[in-house]
Amino acid sequence: MASTSSFAPPKLADFILTERLGSGTYATVYKAYRKGDSREVVAVKVVAKKSLNKASTENLLTEIEILKTMRHPHIVQLKDFQWDAENIYLILEWCSGGDLSRFIRSRRILPERVSKRFLQQIACALLFLHERNISHLDLKPQNILLSGSVLKLADFGFAQYMSPWDEQSVLRGSPLYMAPEMVCRRQYDSRVDLWSLPPGARVSKDCRDLLLRLLERNPDARITFAEFFTHPFVDLEHMPSAESLVKAKELVLQAVQKDQEGERSAALSFYCSALEHFVPAIHYETDRQRKDALRQKVSQYVSRAEELKALVASDNRLSFEEARTSRDILREMSRDQPRLLAALQMASTAIAKEESGMDDHEVLDLYQQCLGELLLALAAEPQGRRRELLHGEMQETQRDVSLDRESLTDSVRSLSLTATVGTLLGRRTEQQAGHRAGHRAFT
Fold first, then answer.
1. Domain Protein kinase spans what residues (predicted)?
2. Given 14, 37, 80, 138, which residue is catalytic?
3. Contacts for 221-228 with beta carbons within 8 Å, 24 or more apart?
4. Distance CA 267, CA 262 (A)
5. Is the model's pLDDT at 284 over the cut of 80?
6. 366-375, pLDDT tens digit by residue?
7. Which residues participate in the annotated binding site for ATP?
8. Residue 214: CB partners within 8 Å, gap ≥ 6?
9. Which residue positions form the known binding site?
10. 335-442 fold
């Protein structure tokens, strides 16, 4: 079937082997082309029979057994395997991007968002293996290949079928990436794969939490597979995949329906959930035109979500204001202003005295003191919701006076309140444009 020499790659009936990609103790990997019209590019792992001992033969048979039935977007596919008198050949899916180790070295530091996307893909493959009681046992950047922006687990030479309760003591994998319990030749189980996941630097709180739990030396205290797959940094639910767009469309249809029914809060919630799937859908899409069309749609949904957010905030504000008087709201917003709180209390006292029929002059004096304090507070108050309420409180205080209305009006005029307020508002006319955006965000 094939022949080989020490200087040339082996020859196979259906493939042309070209450049050597790498080699290890038992195998050498070549880039190859399928003969015929298709010219399909593959990788061929050539294992010399004479280099195999009993243990390595069992490992190779297990690798073939595992890979021949496995089909997963983040695991390198075994297309075929052949053998002759000298070698065993594994015909594998071609990954043009090389391995993750080379990718990391070429960029030195990966942004956390890229690391997260890569980790999601590795986690997706590990979940697939874990559900089938398979442990890779040699996870490292050199055994993770890139095909475009897609990661694929490769080299299952040390992989084993291991149930969660199975334990091993045989040394497997690469020393630099071995879990402590394996290096110390203690009993170990499938959790060694969690230790081997690559770390990062300058990371977020969630990422740091995950790394520390993955790199726990005590396997009993280390994060479990179930906890790993549901960790907020891994976030498999929002991993870019073929399902991302399907989920996004389902959610946005519900958002539109709720929007049409006038249920703004529910519509906003569905729009936000849909956008959490639209973003990974854009990452997953490879066709430029479809990607651009998706971006335009997402932009429209974002705009509508922002509109709904403002409307919901307005609805909430109106409900809040209907339930409480302006003075109550102003008092709540003025907890950090002792003098303003005292003035509001003075106004409440004046109203109470007025309602109880106290001496007009005493009530008038309280109102004058209150208005003087409110005027000072208004002069120092920046543009915003509290300033509006403060201005309204001053006007409301004047309207609420029921004792000797003409005398109180004369007293207020003597303070030139109206002119002063007008002057204060005039001074801030130039600031209103800058403050108006802040006012809208506040309210």
1. 15-234
2. 138
3. 222/191, 222/194, 222/195, 223/194, 224/191, 225/126, 225/127, 225/130, 225/190, 225/191, 225/194, 228/123, 228/126, 228/194
4. 8
5. yes
6. 877 887 888 8
7. 50
8. 194, 195, 197, 199, 222, 223, 228
9. 50
10. Methane Monooxygenase Hydroxylase; Chain G, domain 1 (1.20.58)
First CA to last CA distance, the chain: 79
Q: Which CATH number fits domain 100-230: 3.40.710.10, 2.60.120.330, 3.40.50.620, 1.10.510.10?
A: 1.10.510.10
Q: Please answer whether residues 197 and 136 qualify as being in contact, where contact means their C-beta atoms are separated by less than 8 angstroms.
A: no
Tokens of 183: 């290096």
Residue 316 exposure: Cα atoms within 13 Å on the Cβ side: 10
pLDDT digits (tens, 9 = 90+) for 304-350: 898 888 888 777 666 555 545 677 777 778 888 888 888 888 878 87
pTM score over 0.70: no
Closest CA to 381 of 343, 328, 419, 325: 343
Residue with tokens 């203690």: 186
Q: pLDDT value at position 55?
A: 86
Give the helix/strand (H/E) hosting 432. Answer: helix 429-442
